[in-house]
Write a structure and sequence with these properties.
Blueprint (H helix, E strand, L loop, with lengths): L1 H13 L2 E4 L18 E4 L10 E5 L7 E7 L13 H9 L3 E5 L11 H15 L1 H4 L1 E11 L1 H11 L9 E5 L12 H7 L7 H6 L13 E6 L7 H13 L4 E6 L4 H6 L2 H15 L2
Parallel strand pairs: 4-5, 4-6, 6-7, 7-8, 8-9
Antiparallel strand pairs: 1-9, 2-3, 3-5
Helix pairs in contact: 3-5
Length: 280
């Protein structure tokens, strides 16, 4: 047990990062401001077959503030907004309204149900901008793992009028076709890659990249054996080749869960990225 703990500490202390793409030269992030108590609301229509909720955390003051939709991970089959609660609090302390959403889970709901729920959340935000104290022209999306997959789809696959203005994606599965035997992707799709190659391509964010895609901040652990780092590298290259701003922040020695739990430097960089794109 002691050896295992010591090994973890050594990995954490020895981790280093490499960054490709634009890096903000801004000063340190502002001191945290007061955030109001989170409020829960239903963002789907009253007659929706599956009512979906979001937890909204916003800064004190009248605004309008930029907004960031948070999308939790969990392999499309689990997880909850509670997983993103610390990040929601931090976003609000930095001057953003955090819209921490739920979405329909697989296998009960299959692609494209999840990205349709993200589109509904974005539509709700913009339609209720005044009540939520947000500027509807300054909306970002941030997700990790399965949530990063949906965030990246929002920045590439949604119609241009619905797309966010900036995307942060950590541990991103950019191309589902890399994992034809994944039981989680099978639950999301309800099909096999062999039987439905077009559907699997449609569910892969990298296939939708074009010059109108949202700018992205991508972060990933180099020891991620669950979602290989080649996903983030492929997404970064594809965005860059399309002329879209992309920054790739790689954390050496971190795996999938360590990157989610201890990626403070990646979060700081992502917050600077969001401030630049979403704040006047």
């Amino acid at each position: 047990m002691k050896v295992g703990l010591l090994g973890c500490i050594i990995v954490l202390l020895s981790a280093c990062v490499s960054v490709s793409g634009p890096v903000d030269k801004a000063p340190d992030l502002p001191a945290p401001q007061k955030a109001l108590a989170p409020q829960r609301l239903t963002y789907t229509a009253d007659d929706a077959p599956t009512p979906l909720q979001a937890i909204v955390t916003r800064p004190a003051g009248a605004g309008p503030f930029p907004a960031v939709v948070l999308i939790h991970g969990g392999g499309w089959t689990g997880g909850a907004p509670d997983d993103m609660a610390p990040l929601a609090e931090r976003l609000a302390q930095q001057g953003f309204v955090a819209f921490n959403m739920t979405y329909r889970l697989a296998p009960g709901a299959r692609h494209p149900a999840q990205i349709n729920d993200v589109a509904t959340a974005l539509d709700y935000l913009r339609a209720h901008a005044a009540a939520l104290h947000i500027d509807p022209t300054r909306v970002g999306v941030w997700g990790y793992s399965a949530g990063a997959h949906l965030a990246a789809l929002a920045g590439t696959r949604l119609p241009e009028a619905q797309r966010p203005q900036a995307v942060v994606a950590g541990g991103l599965p950019a191309d589902l076709r890399k994992y034809p035997k994944s039981p989680l992707i099978a639950k999301l799709m309800g099909t096999s890659l062999a039987d439905d190659p077009a559907g699997w391509a449609d569910a892969s964010p990298v296939t939708h990249v074009d010059a109108r895609s949202a700018p992205m901040w991508l972060y990933h652990g180099t020891w991620d054996w669950i979602v290989g780092v080649d996903n983030a590298q492929l997404m970064h290259t594809t965005l860059s080749q399309a002329g879209v701003e992309s920054t790739l922040y790689l954390i050496s020695g971190y795996g999938h869960f360590a990157t989610f739990l201890w990626s403070r430097g990646a979060e700081d960089g992502a917050l600077q990225f969001l401030r630049r794109h979403l704040m006047p």
